[in-house]
Amino acid sequence: MNEEVRKRIRDSVKRLWANKEYKEKQEKAHKGKTGDKASNWQGGLTESKWNKRKGTSRKDWNKKISKALTGKKRSEESIDKQKSHKRSQESIDKQRKSVIGKYRGENNHRWIKDRTKLKKSDKKHLCNQYKEWMLSVKNRDNWECKINDNNCNGKLEAHHILRWSEFPELRYNINNGISLCHFHHPRKIKDEKKLSQFFTKLIKTKV
Ligand SMILES: [Zn+2]
After folding, report:
1. Rounded to an integer, what is the distance from CA 132 to the centroid of its chain?
2. Which of 6, 93, 141, 144 supports an S-S bond with 179, CB 3.0-4.6 Å?
3. Cα of 40 to ligand 1 centre, how many Å?
């Protein structure tokens, strides 16, 4: 992970916590899970369960393992044995052949037999009218993300302010489109709805 990504994550977490509603939700969820309970949660087992299961406490168990591992050296023989254990080309080819094509077409779990059942939205990017709409939105916005800040990242996308599926009459209306970079493109329906008013304002203000 590079520094930039890390910073972006940190910023977005900070922003989340600045939201009062979110903070209250988190605090509620963690209520009572403090101290011992919280630290045990990481290990998955409480101390007493651990004792029952292994017949030994976790501390003793860890000691045993570290004792068993210290100073132990693998013999040359064992190392050579592992090194020489290579799969033959034949066996690799055999496995490869058995997998090729196995999950294609009808054998794929995502295969849809009746092509008419494909959602209309799956096909929208193939339609010429859609391409035209997308181009005119991007042209109007000078091929720049309308949020245009330091976080901007990724490919420029034309976003439907009011949803494609819910507002068919606005699908090719340029005033229902906004250019956003991949980073600023809302990923959840909930976010889309929250931001729609804000986006409408944005496209009305000229840069
Ligand atoms: Zn952006």
Report:
1. 30
2. 141
3. 41
Residue 160 — φ and ψ, nearest 5°? -80, 120
Question: Ligand 1 center to residue 157 CA distance, Å?
Answer: 10
The model's pTM is 0.42
Q: Which residues pair with 180 in a beta bridge?
A: 157
Are 187 and 148 a contacting pair, CB within 8 Å?
no
Distance between Cα 69 and ligand 1 center (Å): 52
Please give the pLDDT value at position 199: 93
Q: Check: CB of residue 146 under 8 Å from CB of residue 204.
A: no
CA dihedral 164, 170, 175, 179 (to 10 degrees): 20
- Rounded to the nearest angstrom, the distance between the alpha carbon of 130 and the centre of ligand 1 is 22
**Ligand 1 centroid vs 179 CA: distance in angstroms?**
9
Residue 146 three-state SS: coil
Rounded CA gap, 157 and 182, in Å? 7
CA of 118 to the centre of ligand 1 (A): 31
Q: What's the mean pLDDT when you consider all of the chain?
A: 79
Give the Å distance between the CA of 154 and the centre of ligand 1: 8
Neighbour-count burial for 109-130, b at 16+ CB within 10 Å, e otherwise: eeeeeeeeeeeeeeebeeeeeb
Per-residue confidence (pLDDT) for residue 181, from 0 to 100: 94
Strand ranges, E, within the chain: 156-160, 177-181
H-run or E-run covering 178: strand 177-181
